[in-house]
Design brief:
This protein is mainly beta and 498 residues long. It has two domains: 337 residues, Tachylectin-2, Chain A (5 Propeller); 142 residues, Exo-inulinase, domain 1 (Jelly Rolls). It has two helices and 32 strands. Strands 22, 23, 24, 25, 26, 27, 28, 29, 30 and 31 form a ten-stranded antiparallel β-sheet that branches. Strands 19-1-2-3-4-32 form a six-stranded mixed β-sheet, with no helix packed on it. Strand 24 and strand 25 form a beta hairpin. The protein binds beta-D-fructofuranose (FRU). The site of beta-D-fructofuranose has 14 residues, from strand 1, strand 5, strand 9, strand 13 and strand 17.
């Protein structure tokens, strides 16, 4: 695509173009109801996730004028309770000297009654050489955001390439620190740390010293925090090779846990790399600590370089629901935040024994709902559910007791999407009990296995009348308890682009 077209600002588009795009999006059958999605164009990483002035603020990477990765803005959304969200227009507008080719990902931190937003200014010169800058914008209590004229980090330190971005800031008792995603000059990925006393002047400290010295060619969107006395480093390594059921997406998103990062040596003693999600569409998550001390994570429900069926409908992608992180034996567990229970309507419950059969139940159907299914005393080979089913379509979630796996199969989910690494995803599971907790929206599903031990996050694109739900037990019996709620519309979108 021609570069001028790709890096157009919103104000360079005609009002006719914008109107037509907005109308096209409104006709899409796959618009979500309780997930944050763009009014038009493409959404990617969550940015600046924070709690400020009595509200949660969540920005995202946004290209308004098409469903490709063009000139990135920060779009602003906010919420009083993490359940109901409203659009708040453009947060950071790119196009100046230090963010001429995009206001790339970054994070937020509150200081002296204002919200500081640190982000990567992406620039290209006449020969298309990239130069990243780490920039700052500040939001006041009125919600006005001002960009600082000069970057706070104006060069890439020696030993790293121009792939140097996504500052995530935190506050230790004595200092501010940020972690930045980097590529070494030998084309391996790393995360580096800077320190500051005032958020204005930053000193390069060095690399976080992990045992992953040759682990992908770039680490995007790092995040560091401590939870229950443990250090946690989230990273998105690019360039890993799939191994069995692991790493079966174009890029990965995972974490290391260990002893707290040594602030002087940047030594991080950690365990193995684990993926955060086992599904098809999850990347670039960001966390924040809220006023109640919870660590909350939101991810991008999508991946770069994959085509999605809504691309031709003028919009692409959404964010995940907010999830609380808990660390258990070195493993991160994810739980949908409790506030989402406010969206529940019209509960329906069943309790029965299934034996060598597949069964439907009155009222168990829909396109937007939450459902918890407990399968207990599993005898036999496999149990599970089919959902969003109808006329040849279905999405299947099964616990295969013989193979000790939970498998999500979207091969017949509807319009095909990203089948590059196959159309099933799987993870290990054990025992004669399994719990599935599903959040289904018009074109997605997030599945929490056994109270968040594993999560499958996936887009699916079924027909609107594929509404069926059935439960099955293969070659044996199982005790089933299930409860389902409809979910209220929770995102108040602005009428058009602002
Ligand atoms: C991750 C990413 C970031 C970058 C942003 C640009 O998806 O590539 O590294 O800052 O997206 O939109």
């Amino acid at each position: 695509m021609d570069r001028e077209q790709k890096y157009r600002r919103l104000d360079q588009a005609s009002s006719k173009e914008v109107r037509e795009l907005t109308e096209k999006v409104k006709r899409s059958p796959w618009r979500q109801t309780y997930h944050i999605q763009p009014v038009t164009g493409l959404l990617n990483d969550p940015n600046g996730f924070s709690y400020y002035n009595g509200e949660y603020h969540l920005f995202y990477q946004w290209f308004p004028l098409g469903t490709y990765h063009g000139l990135k803005y920060w779009y602003h959304t906010k919420s009083k309770d993490l359940a109901y969200w409203e659009d708040d227009g453009i947060g950071i507008q790119p196009g100046d000297r230090y963010d001429s080719h995009g206001a790339y990902s970054g994070s937020g931190i509150v200081k002296d009654g204002r919200l500081f937003l640190m982000y990567t200014g992406n620039t290209r010169d006449g020969s298309w050489e990239r130069q990243p800058y780490q920039c700052m914008a500040v939001m006041n209590p009125e919600g006005e955001i001002d960009k600082w004229r000069l970057p706070v980090i104006d060069h890439v330190p020696h030993g790293y390439t121009d792939h140097f971005r996504d500052p995530k800031v935190w506050k230790d008792e004595d200092k501010y620190r940020c972690v930045i995603g980097a590529q070494r000059t030998d084309n391996t990925g790393a995360a580096v740390v800077y320190e500051s006393n005032d958020l204005r002047s930053w000193d390069f400290q060095g690399e976080i010293r992990t045992t992953l010295q040759d682990f992908g060619y770039m680490w995007e969107c790092p995040d560091y925090f401590e939870l229950e006395g443990q250090g946690v480093l989230l990273i998105c390594p690019q360039g890993l090779t799939p191994r069995g059921d692991s790493c079966r997406n174009i890029y990965q998103s995972g974490y290391l846990t260990g002893k707290p990062l040594n602030r002087n040596t940047l030594e991080f003693e950690h365990g193995e790399f684990r993926e955060l999600d086992r599904g098809f569409d999850f990347y670039a998550p960001q966390t924040m600590q809220d006023a109640k001390g919870r660590r909350i994570m939101v991810g991008w429900m999508g991946l770069p370089e994959v085509e999605y069926p809504t691309d031709s409908q003028g919009w692409a992608h959404c964010l995940t629901i907010p999830r609380e992180l808990i660390v258990l034996n070195g493993k991160l567990m994810q739980r949908p935040v409790a506030e989402l229970q406010k969206l529940r309507r019209d509960p329906l419950e069943i309790e029965c024994v299934l034996s060598h059969e597949k069964k439907v139940f009155e009222g168990f159907e829909g396109t937007v709902y939450e459902m918890v299914c407990d399968f207990e005393n599993i005898h036999g080979e496999a149990v599970g559910i089919e959902f969003r089913s109808g006329r040849g379509q279905k999405t299947v979630l099964r616990y295969d007791r013989r193979d000790r796996k939970v498998i999500l199969d979207r091969s017949r989910s509807g319009e095909a999407v990203g089948s590059g690494y196959g159309s099933t995803r799987a993870c290990r599971a054990n025992g004669d009990h399994v719990k599935f907790h599903l959040f289904v929206d018009t074109s997605s599903v997030e599945i929490f296995i056994n109270d968040g031990e594993e999560v499958f996050t996936s887009r699916i694109f079924p027909d609107p009348d594929s509404r069926g739900i059935s439960f099955f037990a293969e070659n044996g019996s199982v005790g089933l308890k299930a409860v389902k709620w409809d979910l209220a519309r929770a995102v108040n979108h602005s009428e058009g682009i602002e």
